[in-house]
Write a structure and sequence with these properties.
Layout (H helix, E strand, L loop, with lengths): L2 E5 L14 H18 L8 H4 L1 E10 L10 E10 L4 E10 L5 E15 L4 E2 L4 H8 L23 E4 L14 H20 L10 E11 L10 E10 L3 E10 L2 E14 L4 E2 L4 H9 L3
């Protein structure tokens, strides 16, 4: 069984290209997940499974640009794995097409663990929670994870992460969606530094995110002092590149991520090879 949630879209969800911003999709997934866990099965009566969990990992694949529409976008969600103290949910974001098919914009998976916020410790799933999740179970063979490259702390990739009070949830942790926003800000600053002083007449390029994988290690808390994000280029292709990032508090790793970006032609709405100078700049800092 799969749960279908109709998620309203907001005009503020759009980015400069007129697409739903990659960060906003993760907000949609959170809305769909909470809706599913609050409305089904024995565990829905307490709400603990919907609200008393933390995200351990997100894997998000962006398939097609989603533009603003007055009709809601649909999100299917289901469970792909059940373990003693964690479970994995999968999602598909889509619109139904007139011919009976569907236009899919995104597929994703999220690993979650029940959490006792009073003691700041994970816990095991209860029998009632397992019963709720079992009804949505569809096993799915996921591709093996590729190890991240070693962290590079170089000034060109440094970004101070300032936590806003509005970033924090009711449990005092920075919400999992906000990490995507921090990573986006760090990535944009790295690109800005790389593209400075390009030769006169160099065409401007657009980029879109194709894949984002984020691991959550230690909760980020609200405080006046910034945390440190470090980003570096780990792969350069003919039309794409991979940027890896970490968010740290001194030597403590709080989160790590891998993001695949693609050079994008706004006229054709397809990937495109960039002018060679962009690849040269990326190759110059390749890990």
């Amino acid at each position: 069984m799969r749960h279908v949630y109709e998620c309203p879209m907001r005009w503020a969800d759009m980015d400069l290209l007129g697409h739903v911003n990659n960060v906003t999709y993760v907000d949609y997934l959170q809305e769909a997940r909470v809706d599913m866990l609050r409305t089904h099965g024995p565990a829905a009566r307490t709400g603990e499974l919907a609200e008393g969990v933390v995200v351990v990992r997100h894997e998000v694949t962006y398939l097609s640009p989603l533009t603003f529409q007055f009709r809601p976008v649909k999100i299917e969600s289901w469970v792909t794995e059940l373990r003693a103290a964690s479970f994995t949910m999968a999602y598909e974001v889509f619109h139904d097409e007139p011919d009976g098919g569907r236009r899919v914009y995104l597929r994703a998976a999220t690993v979650l663990t029940p959490y006792v916020f009073a003691t700041e410790r994970p816990r095991r799933l209860s029998e009632g929670e397992r019963e709720t999740l079992q009804a949505f179970l569809e096993p799915w063979d996921r591709a093996p994870r590729v190890p991240l490259t070693p962290t590079r702390r170089e000034e060109i990739g440094h970004f101070p992460v300032h936590v806003r009070f509005s970033d924090v949830d009711v449990y005092g942790h920075v919400n999992n969606v906000k990490y995507f926003e921090y990573l986006q800000e760090a990535r944009i600053q790295l690109m800005d530094r790389l593209w400075r002083d390009l030769p006169e007449g160099t065409p401007r390029v657009s980029m879109v995110v194709a894949q984002t994988d984020v691991d959550y290690r230690v909760p980020i808390l609200f405080r006046p002092e910034p945390y440190d994000a470090w980003s570096w280029v780990s792969r350069v292709g003919s039309r794409s590149a991979t940027i890896e990032s970490v968010i740290c508090d001194g030597d403590t790793l709080l989160s790590q991520a891998r993001v695949s970006i693609v050079f994008f032609d706004q006229a054709t709405q397809r990937s495109t090879p960039p002018p060679e100078v962009y690849r040269e700049r990326l190759m110059g800092v390749l890990a």
